[in-house]
Automatic annotation (TrEMBL), chains A, B:
MF terms in GO: guanyl-nucleotide exchange factor activity; translation initiation factor activity
Top-level lineage group: Eukaryota
UniProt subunit comment: Component of the translation initiation factor 2B (eIF2B) complex which is a heterodecamer of two sets of five different subunits: alpha, beta, gamma, delta and epsilon. Subunits alpha, beta and delta comprise a regulatory subcomplex and subunits epsilon and gamma comprise a catalytic subcomplex. Within the complex, the hexameric regulatory complex resides at the center, with the two heterodimeric catalytic subcomplexes bound on opposite sides.
Keyword list, A-Z: Cytoplasm, Initiation factor, Protein biosynthesis
Lineage: Eukaryota, Fungi, Fungi incertae sedis, Zoopagomycota, Kickxellomycotina
Protein name: Translation initiation factor eIF2B subunit alpha
InterPro entries recorded: eIF2B_alpha/beta/delta, elF-2B_alpha_N, IF-2B-related, IF_2B-like_C, NagB/RpiA_transferase-like
């Protein structure tokens, strides 16, 4: 599992980064790791150099089970490399890429704050907000709204199987925000009392849709049926070059997900924990607006940004 | 908690019935209990007689936390009493009511079989069926389809918080039906692969909508968005005289359901288990057809039947 070009283990480095700083976001850790690869490699030709970086990126994606957000970070870095490689020699490209990567890592931390700043005017006094699962960017936005002395209430979905909603509820209580956890099956029941829905994203795709914790898609369907605004929050480095055509067209898809069992003693708990999907895809028609550090966007605005970035 | 008119305890009798025969349906147990009340009472005037029976019915409803299906049984019985009281004296009314009640209890057992018979043509070879939670009438229909050598697959929702879907999955495995449990949050994910949705009902209301285990409503919304047929199964004695205007207009509604918490240490597990709704209301526009022992009906057909029954 070591990347070509030496004894440096990109996967180990990546896991170290995440372990040392639990608040680091995965695309940022991925870019940091690839910067390290670039620093360590000793390629003499441009094609060798690019091959090493691409291989390391592939190793990293594979080792993280093709995580959408790791892929997003890798893709941003590879695109940067492709752009820099056109004009320059190996040495210059190497230095420029390291500096671009470090710059990305430095500014990425601010992205979450920018999203919170851009999104917070949408949270108003006396609103009831429904959030799904645990998302750092949502917690950031709600934290900012509390600091602005806004008073609002939050419903949080339990978000099985890992019950990550409970973590969000705990944090909200500490912030002094009245909140309550809601069964994943009770979203339809509660939607009538909700003023707006906020979700985070693992990745925002080229269609303008988003990939996020399982349950996001049905939340969006239910919100649309009840004509409630559905806002997604995402840092721009989560934009990924994917165009899923269905729920089963995601990089995390495995054919044994939700496979039918027909004999013997089946441990249903294991099925729920391990053989159910962890992510789903929400098509753009269900998303009212996206709050990103590039501004408030419609789903089609995201497509435009992505095309611009990758055509540059 | 004893009903007026003697030492007979209608609530205790009801709970005994349910404990002795776990397969008894609640409306049937309620009617059986009220028959016993009628047998035990010693009223001398018609008005006293009706007062005793109405009081017993009220005590029973209250003791079962206004359970929709117990209410359904009680309402059928009270309607029968009102009808018989018009023409006859106390003695005759008493005897006729006992005989009508016993007759109801005897034939009720067949209703579930009739629903299975009427619904089973809708299950065809090679279909993928999504069911919600555990429902005896659905298990009856699927059992019949298996006996007819139909081959199909079933997705079952986990149906938190009591995880009743796991019980359904166990029974289906024993019947040799390939099945898999699905997170309550993964219904949107899986709907594309589903051919039809089957749900049971605690009660079918005057609008033609239904009251059932929480999650049914959002299942129906998601099915409609994916243009999949959504069939509800219900014995006709589950038709109830209710016209809910929203989710919060059900007899089981409590104001502390999903109340916001704003301080201290909250046990979220308790919130999920005890302060989340157990039932929700699915409006008629989401229901494709209802399979009942009176035949296959549209939601508006149910309204007609209910009006007919209570106007008679």
């Amino acid at each position: 599992m070591t990347a070509q070009g030496g004894a440096f283990d990109v996967v180990e480095y990546y896991h170290d980064l995440v372990a040392k700083d639990p608040s680091i976001s995965m695309p940022v850790a991925a870019v940091s790791s690839l910067v390290k690869v670039v620093e360590q490699q000793r390629a003499t030709t441009m094609s060798e150099f690019m091959k090493i970086v691409r291989a390391a990126s592939e190793v990293l994606k594979e080792a993280t089970h093709r995580s959408i957000s790791v892929s997003a970070g890798c893709d941003v870095f590879l695109q940067q490399m492709a752009r820099l490689s056109h004009a320059q020699g190996v040495e210059e490209c190497r230095d420029a890429l390291i500096s671009a990567g470090n710059n990305f890592v430095m500014t990425a931390g601010q992205c979450r704050d920018q999203v919170a700043e851009i999104g917070s005017p949408f949270v108003r006094d006396d609103q009831t907000i429904l959030i799904h699962s645990y998302s750092r960017v949502i917690m950031g936005l709600l934290h900012r709204a509390v600091k602005q002395n806004k008073r609002f209430r939050v419903y949080v979905t339990e978000s099985r199987p890992d019950k990550s909603g409970l973590r969000a509820a705990d944090e909200l209580l500490k912030l002094g925000v009245p909140c309550e956890v809601v069964l994943d099956a009770a979203v339809g029941y509660i939607m009538e009392k909700v003023d707006l829905v906020l979700v985070g994203a693992e990745g925002v795709v080229e269609s303008g849709g988003l990939i996020n914790k399982v349950g996001t898609y049905q939340l969006a369907i239910i919100a649309k049926a009840a004509k409630k605004p559905f806002y997604a929050l995402a840092e721009s480095y989560k934009f990924v070059r994917l165009y899923p055509l269905s729920q089963y067209d995601l990089p995390t898809y495995r054919s044994d997900l939700l496979a039918f069992k027909d004999s013997g003693n089946v441990d249903w708990q294991t099925e729920l924990q391990e053989n159910n999907p962890t992510l789903d895809y929400t098509p753009p028609e269900y998303i009212t607006l996206l709050f990103t550090d590039l501004g408030v966007m419609t789903p089609s605005g995201v497509s435009d940004e992505l095309i611009k970035f990758y055509l540059d």
